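Researcher: Here's the sequence for the chain we discussed earlier.
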Amino acid sequence: MATTILVAQVITIAGHDFSVYASKGELSAEAEDKDVTTHGSGGWKEHAGGLKDGEVALEFFQDFANLDAVMWPLLGTVQTFTMRANSGAISATNPQYSGSLFIKQWNPLSGSGPAGSSRVCVIHTLGARINCL
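Model: Thanks. This is the structure I predict for it:
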């Protein structure tokens, strides 16, 4: 089984490449679990997939001039995004995920620690509609 270590992840939002600021990028998708059990199910529950939903969770090292200035106006809006494991060519071993997402929360200052600690900013999204190329 091949193992992938993320060292050059590519992350864009609304056409802006934020890869140089990103320290963490997670993409997840799920489908609702619908109970479709009937009296003919033989005593077993039956399930069907319902609506799908996605989420993108990102952490960045803050850059007020280049990152924060772009993200504040995007808060509360639906924007396009792309993500892939590395900056190499898009392929079966480096697929690009893309779609649209609702930017629910922007935390321009986050983290804790003593004076001199790195400060990160966090973005939380909902309703990511995800495609894979």
